[in-house]
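Give me structure tokens for this 743-residue protein.
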Amino acid sequence: MRHEAVQTGLKAHLNRRFAVAAMLLLSAVVAVTVTLIVVTALDRVASYANHLDEERSRETIRGAIQTFRYQLDATLNDYAAWDDAADNVYDPSPSDWSDRNFGDMTYDSDLFDVAILLDRAGRSLMAYSDGSPIAGGLGGYLRQDIQAMLKEVQSREAGGTPQVSGFVRTDKGIGAAGVALIRKKSGEIEVPPERRAYLVFIRHLTPGTVDRHAAAYVLPGLSLVPASTRSTHRVAIESPSGVPLAALAWSPRAPGDMSRQQVEALVTTALVIVGLFCLTLLLTGWMVVRRLRADEQAAVRLSLTDQLSGVANREGLFRMLETRVAEAQVTGDDVVLIYLDLDGFKEINDAYGHATGDSLIRAVAAGLTVLAGDPSALARIGGDEFAIVLKGEDAQARAEVLSEAILSFFNEPLLLGDRVVVVGCSIGLCVSSGGHVDADELIRRADMAMYSSKDGGRGRWTFYDAGMDDAREMRNQLELDLRAAIQDGEISVVYQPIVDAHSFDLVGVEALARWTRRGHGPVSPDVFIPIAEASGLIDRLGLCVLDMALSQLKRWPGIKLSVNISPGQFRDPAFVCRVEDLFEQANVDPQRVVLEMTETYFIQNAERARMALDRLRRIGVRIALDDFGVGFSSVGYLRQFGFDRMKIDRSLIQSLGDGHRAVEMLQATVALARSLNIPVTAEGVETEQQAVILRLAGCDQLQGYLFGRPSTVEDIDAYRARSMTPRARAADIAFAAHRGERH
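Here you go.
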């Protein structure tokens, strides 16, 4: 028995020794493996960093080349699609207008250095280079590619934009060139084809231009080299016909190699430390790994799930898309991403609290799960944003059907406990045909399509198209320019007359913002006002207009001022204080000012709107409900907020010619306002017949093109001189005396 016990103990001891030896051997293998992995990883990271830097440089240079051409294209469009150019170039009488406006501009210009004016047959009417007429023939400039561009432009005159650009070779070198038909800004061409003229601009890639690009894009050693140069660090510049003209080459920086040299000593030290600790931690680590393996799997599942709705979160969506795209690359199927955002969720959250908002999110997730038919295809990727992934040959058709079903789902009210809420959605869709669009780009494009749906009126679905990228870039540039214009005082104000409905005397003006964009010309308010709203610039823009209008109002005694106020300004808690400060600085009676507001903000934030209106009334300003008849037009809101004036929307005025029903509707609207003791202003009056109908209906003030378009200060001065009465001057003198007593 004792022998057997010894044998058993020895055997157990040997087993333990074997186990220890095995663990030590395993530790040695792990240490060597870790060392190899770290060294290999370091090398791969360095190589990958070098590769990324090279690709970034390549894409940057491609972008710089395209930007260089686009800049010339935009400049050419400004000069060719120009009313003055169309009038003067096609004027049969001799003139040096083309020399002054085209040729002289080539001198020391960053926009173009060659300007040539051609007739229909390609004969030169004017040719300048670097500010001087081109001596001799134009063979060094009007080569085959330019001639091909001219033919292409002529083929587009019947339809499309008659303008073409590309890169060409001239006697001066390589440059971007463009050919465009001289035409009106509207695109109208008033001369027969045989008299038409074509403008050619060329901007050469000089060493100075290349150096500026190198500095701007941080590309050391950037240079213009022949097309035959053998180098992997180059981007070719091709003519419109596909012939290589030259290339931009650069010196690679190899950031990965430099980074690897910096960390090699530290990595070596770390590997030694890892080897020493590996023996100590191995035994404990082996047991911990077993326990953590299960926890890790649970944590991974948890990290990919949205805790509120129970569906996948943003990371889960990304992994889902990566998997579906990889599968589509093998099978050739389409992958469609449906990206939707709730319309009105913030208002519900603010009105009823976050608990109701959370309930709404869960209800929407449940409804979308049923509609999608596959819970694993649904994800919540933001506060009120969801996404659905579809895959298959018919994925696009299914996505359209599903989008319609989602819109129908949101057309019905949702019951959340004791509350019934109505919320809409805007949907963007993007297709990855055969998996050729990766997950990141799919999400970006679908998000852009979703915002296009919002901009288009909400409650709709829109497929992504490449034009959305150009539109967003143009919009972003407009926003930057608008921000600078407000800061630099480039916003101007015009004033539209408001007259008494009975005497047609001038009783007020409406201040309207105008912006002449530097280098581009006037920008329509229909364009820059929405951009100011969306970007948060509307508060500064509105205060700027009010400040300038108040300063001008002091010159117009007896005249009242109307200024539009955006809902975006109302959301600023300091808005009322800033308005009050402007009145103090301008020393203008607040009762002479009417702030016009649409009903959108009152409907969405009734309590906040009431508080803001009360504070404004304490200042002394009057409040007008603008665009009545175009939105909800609730009688309850008229009574609840007690507006000082109502402005009837121009759509009701324009419909007066449609028959008796339109007139009766107008009369009912005015009668409603007068029953509430609210004076009525009608805007958009364009004919005397409309003015008579409006006066008979009970409107006390009229505004529209019949009485005057938005005008300058001088025009209003002249208008006021014709309609100013002694009574108005006496009222202004009385107010000035009153202000003097207070101050």
